[in-house]
Every structure is written in C-alpha cells, then in structure tokens.
Amino acid sequence: MTAVMGQQGLDRGDQDRGAGHRDWDERLARRTHALGGSEITAILSLAGATDVITFSGGFPEPATFQAGVLADIAARLIAEEPGVALQYSATEGLVGIREYVSGRLAVQEGRAPGAGELMITSGGIDCMELLAKSYVDPGDVVVVEAPTYLGGIMAFRGYEADVRGVPIDDAGMRVEVLADLLAGGLRPKIVYTIPDYQNPAGLSMSAERRQELIDLARRYDFLILEDVAYRELGFGTTPPPSLWSLAPDVVLQAGTFSKIFSPGFRMGWAVGPADIIGRLIIAKQNSDQCAGALGQRMLEEYGRGGHLDRQVAASRVLYERRAGLTTEALAAHMPDGATWTTPTGGFYVWLTCPDGVDTVALSAAARAQKVAYVPGRPFYLEDAGVGANQIRISYSRVADDLIDEGIRRIADVVKSAL
Ligand SMILES: Cc1ncc(COP(=O)(O)O)c(C=O)c1O
Predict the structure, then answer these.
(1) Which of 124, 371, 378, 408 has the fewest CB atoms within 10 Å, i.e. is most exposed?
(2) Residues flanking ligand 1, CB < 6 Å
(3) What is the pTM of this model?
(4) What is the DSSP string of 257-273?
(5) What is the position in ligand 1's atom list of the atom closest to the CA of 126?
C-alpha cells in the first residue's frame, strides 16, 4: 500500500502532514536568521493598550493630528481628482509633492535637490530598506551608532550586512572611534547616523563631528545615511546644518513625515546623489511600487495650506513640555546612581540604571505595574554586551498628567532590583 502510494508521490507520512503542523521556520531564508524583530513587534503590540502607561513606542501624540482639516482635504481630493489621488503614482512620487518637499528642503536646509536627487518614500524605513536592498551584499560592512534605531539595524541585517557599532556621547557619534577603525582597515560601505535628537538616546551630533564625519566619508569613500526623523522637533534649538546640506556628494538623507505629520500615511523622502536615487527608484518598483497617491496629494495640500508648519510648531511646544515633565519626574523618583539624558528635541530620554539592574528582566515587573518601556539591550548589536541596565523612555505619547505616575512606577521597579 505504502509502495503504491509512494509511487504516486504520497506515502503515509506525507498524508499525515497534509492536514497537520508544518515547520515553516525550517525553510526560512538564511538571511532572516540574524533578523530578530520581536522587539519592534512587542512595541507595536502594546500600541493599543489602554490601561498601561506606555513609554515604549516612538509614537507621535494623536492630538497633533489635524483630523478635521485632513477629512476636508480627503473628501475634496476624492471628489475632484480621483484619477490622480486614487491611482498609482510614479515610483519617485507625484510631481507636486516632490516640488513641495524640494521647496521645504530649500527653506530649511538652504539647499534644494537637483534633478533626479529626490524621491518620495513610504516613510523613513523604506529608504533604509531600499538602500540595503540595492547596495548591501552579504558581508558588507555597515557602521551604525551604538545605541541606534532598531529598524536601521534590521534593514541592514536583513541583507546580511556585517553591522558594526560606534559608540555615541553627548556630541553624537564618536567620530574619532570611527576614524581609528578606518585607520585600522575597516572599510564600511555605509555609515548610518541619526544626527538630531537621536533614537534612542535623544542626543545630537555637534557641528564639528558632522564635518569630521564628512571628511572621513570623502577620504575613505563611504556613503553616509543621514536619518532626520526628529530633525524638525527641536525645543527652541536649531540643530547644526544637516549632513546632506553640507555634503550632497556623499550623503543620502532619509526623511519621514511620520513624526511631524502622521505615521498613518507612511510618507517620507530620500534625497542624495542622483545615481543612488535612481537605484532606489528601481528597487521601489518591485517593493511597493510607489507611496500611496492619496497620501501624497493630501500631504501636499496640507503642507501648502500652512497646516504642516503649524502642526510642527505646536508639536515642538507639546514635546518640550513632556520632556520637561519626564526629567522632573526622573529627578524626583529615580534612585541614586541612575542617570539620564536631557533632551533638547525629539521623543526620547535615555535612562541608565545603576550597574547590575537588568532592564529586560524587569519588563515583566513593569507590566505588572502597568507601565511599559523599551529595555536598552536591543538598541545595541548583540555582541556589544552593553545596554542591559538602560531604558528608552518615549514621552511623546504619554498624557501630561500621567508622566509623573508612570515614571514613579518605573522607578519603583528599578528600586526593587537594587
Ligand atoms: C530614527 C528613526 N528613523 C526612522 C523611523 C521610521 O520612520 P517611519 O515610520 O516613517 O518608517 C523611526 C521611527 O521610529 C525612527 O525613530
């Protein structure tokens, strides 16, 4: 019987498997093995929790979303131009939004993109993914800040890059450490940095370091990927000139509207050397083909109507207030030996607990106290062996009147481990 079935390509084992459990993991592509991703999934899974004070995700405050204005714009666009707003767009983005973003860059950065140097992306992560897909071969070295944005690590790891970390301090990436590595023979293809109000540490790169990094890129022939996700969210401060504005020959800037407009639209931009943008456009053709046209048209209308600038101005005030409440609460509740950064923009405070505190292990206790944070460990590469006593506190979406209570709960959890 089995032999007969075998001849037909179906023995008893295959039959049993027909309805039973399949081990799909066994068949995963090799490049997914280094990927992780569970941390981001865990962060997003908490997004809807209502009874937890959530300092975990890098979420903008929903009160900053101008729902009424957007509803009017959407209704008008759908009624008046469905052939554009509800249609595919060119992969590099519709002309109108590219002109709008280009004009904004000219005002804010003092530099407008040349022909072919700008494209619209589906948020900030899209640019990283397209860059990695187009330029990273297995084993290529990509340097990131340590700590850095998890999505950046994942985008490069996803294409089997050899990702190396360079530490940061109060003046951003320690460029002199990178210089030593380069002098010692390291040859990165890409150096990824978040120079303004960094995720997760909230720190910014000084003007001097920016110039030094550019000098290294020109000398050692690597591309700087500059992520400006929080650049516009300074608290009464203007960050130093962007790397792209200083060195458009060696910098690709990844921008996103997720933090200043709404992540629900998945809108961003990439600006850099035309050859690179051309490659990213080809890569985007067979990823999502184009950012959604409705979002592109809505953002353009919203921006040209002055709403985006007003939203950014109001957001800065809101996040500055929350940052202040957070650092006040930390000073009031944290035990001796804990230190933290004082943000001058962006969404994050980076908390370092006394030695020996294991913030991953404490996550469960925090959940029991109905408070959530992201432990520091995943923001570093696994082999770094650091971050175990650190915590990223995202104050952006915690109501003013819950910040003190939330930080007190985190402090109690930390104290319980001492
Ligand atoms: C530094 C940084 N870059 C990029 C992103 C992702 O942006 P988007 O949601 O637009 O893909 C984030 C989001 O948290 C971020 O913190």
Answers:
(1) 408
(2) 58, 123-125, 149, 151, 194, 199, 227, 229, 256, 258, 263, 268
(3) 0.93
(4) STTTT-GGG--EEEES-
(5) 11
pLDDT digits (tens, 9 = 90+) for 356-367: 999 989 988 999
* CA of residue 125 to ligand 1 center, whole Å: 6
The Å distance, Cα 297 to ligand 1 centre, comes to 21
- Burial of residue 396, with CB atoms counted within 10 A of its CB: 0-12 exposed, 13-18 middle, 19 or more buried: buried
> Binning pLDDT at 50, 70 and 90, where does residue 386 land?
confident
* Interatomic CA distance for residues 135 and 235, integer angstroms: 36
Closest to 248 (Cα-Cα) out of 76, 105, 128: 105
- Please give the radius of gyration of the chain, using alpha carbons only, rounded to the nearest integer: 23
Sheet holding 348-352, edge to edge: 339-340, 348-352, 390-394, 374-375
Q: How far is the CA of 4 from the centre of ligand 1 (A)?
A: 57
Q: What b-and-e string marks burial along 253-286, b requiring 16 or more CB atoms within 10 Å of the CB?
A: bbbbbbbbbbbebbbbbbbbbeebbebbbebbee
**pLDDT tens column, 168-213:** 999 999 999 999 999 999 999 999 999 999 999 999 999 999 999 9
Total residue length of the chain: 418
How many angstroms separate the CA atoms of 135 and 117, rounded? 17
Contact 229, 132 (CB under 8 A): no
58 C-alpha to center of ligand 1: Å? 8
Q: Whose CA is nearest to atom 4 of ligand 1?
A: 124
Could you tell which of 199, 204, 267 is best to mutate to test the pocket of ligand 1, judged by most ligand atoms within 8 Å of the CB? 199
**What are the two backbone dihedrals, phi and then psi, of residue 294, each rounded to the nearest 5 degrees?**
-60, -45
198 CA: nearest ligand 1 atom: 1
Q: How far apart are CA 105 and CA 99, in angstroms?
A: 10
At 240, the amino acid letter reads: P
Ligand 1 atom 2: residue of nearest CA: 229
